[in-house]
């Protein structure tokens, strides 16, 4: 059972769940998980062990073992680590953790993470909540919990793990240049309560001290605002290529079309000029924090 912000995520009665359901539309992920499942089943049957016996040996239910073996569930690293010695696999099964990790999260999220991992520069404007890379785990959990219709606990757990994994971008060396422009309201809306917001603002101040990170605040009182078309983002890569997205332009889809990119980059540039400079923005965040 995982815990975030002191609250259990995905806590359910009954046998421990080995992972998450496979997305049937994710062909790559489904193929990898099916291969791992077949590997486990083959080893188990060669040893004359039942699924019930294997499950008991590693702390999972028989039904959960069958789900993994049939390629319906994505096994967690600890599941693979537990199965490997029981089936005397010599590291063959636990060694699949890296391949499984590649498809652990939904394809859409993997695509975002892959682009962020390749990016040397990222500029993002966010209006209703904080950009995913800036969120603390408890703030992110709150956002997922507020979705309507409500998401299953398992889906929240999976989404939260994916979002947290993306934040490894801050540990890259050399790291990409990251510029975030946030609406003032995102700093004041107490999603999850004042303590969640307080820790989130403290986290922003910490990130704002990193050399490669700039956080700017767009005050609500601004009379000029170039981003009324909604959230937007531009990622640039080492080879000179770029991808942009704006939620109310070009069907909200990522685009590398030069004309469309120029429009998004132009708006990002203007909104950065209209927002408070980074140093003033950090002072503004400190002020909001002090008002809580």
Explain this structure to me?
- With 292 residues, this protein is of the alpha/beta class.
- It contains twelve helices and nine strands.
- It has helices at 27-46, 51-58, 62-69, 77-86, 97-102, 107-118, 137-145, 153-166, 185-188, 194-207, 258-274, 278-291, and strands spanning 2-4, 7-9, 19-21, 73-75, 119-126, 177-183, 213-218, 232-237, 242-246.
- Strand 1 (2-4) and strand 2 form a beta hairpin.
- Helix 2 packs across helix 3 and helix 10 runs antiparallel to helix 12 (278-291).
- It is elongated.
- The model is unreliable at 1-16 (pLDDT under 50).
In short:
The chain has 292 residues and is α/β, with parallel strands linked by helices.
Helix run count: 12
Helices and strands, in order, run as: EEEHHHEHHHEHHEHHEEEHH
Estimate the global geometry from the Cα principal axes.
Answer: elongated
Q: Strand fraction band?
A: 15-25%
Largest sheet: 5 strands, mixed
Question: Strand pairing plus helix content: what structural class?
Answer: alpha/beta
């Amino acid at each position: 059972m995982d815990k975030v912000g002191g609250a259990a995520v995905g806590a359910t009665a009954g046998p421990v769940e080995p992972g998450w359901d496979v997305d049937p539309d994710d062909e790559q992920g489904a193929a990898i998980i099916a291969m791992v499942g077949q590997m486990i089943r083959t080893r188990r049957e060669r040893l004359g062990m039942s699924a019930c016996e294997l499950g008991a040996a590693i702390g999972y239910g028989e039904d959960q073992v069958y789900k993994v073996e049939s390629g319906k569930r994505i096994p967690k690293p600890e599941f693979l680590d537990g199965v490997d010695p029981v089936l005397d696999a010599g590291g063959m099964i636990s060694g699949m953790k890296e391949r499984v990790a590649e498809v652990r999260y939904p394809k859409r999220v993997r695509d975002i993470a892959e682009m962020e991992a390749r990016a040397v520069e990222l500029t993002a404007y966010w209006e209703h909540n904080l950009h995913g890379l800036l969120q603390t785990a408890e703030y992110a959990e709150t956002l997922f919990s507020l979705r309507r219709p409500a998401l299953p606990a398992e889906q929240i757990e999976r989404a939260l793990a994916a979002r947290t994994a993306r934040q490894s971008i801050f540990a890259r060396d050399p790291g990409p240049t990251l510029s975030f422009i946030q609406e003032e309201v995102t700093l004041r809306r107490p999603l999850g309560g004042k303590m969640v917001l307080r820790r989130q603002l403290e986290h922003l101040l910490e990130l704002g001290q990193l050399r490669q990170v700039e956080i700017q605040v767009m005050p609500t009182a601004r009379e000029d605002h170039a981003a009324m078309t909604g959230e937007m983002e531009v990622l640039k890569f080492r080879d000179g290529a770029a991808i942009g997205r704006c939620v109310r332009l070009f069907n909200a889809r990522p685009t590398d079309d030069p004309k469309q990119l120029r429009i998004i980059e132009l708006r990002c540039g203007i909104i950065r000029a209209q927002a408070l400079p980074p140093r003033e923005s950090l002072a503004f965040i400190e002020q909001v924090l002090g008002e809580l």
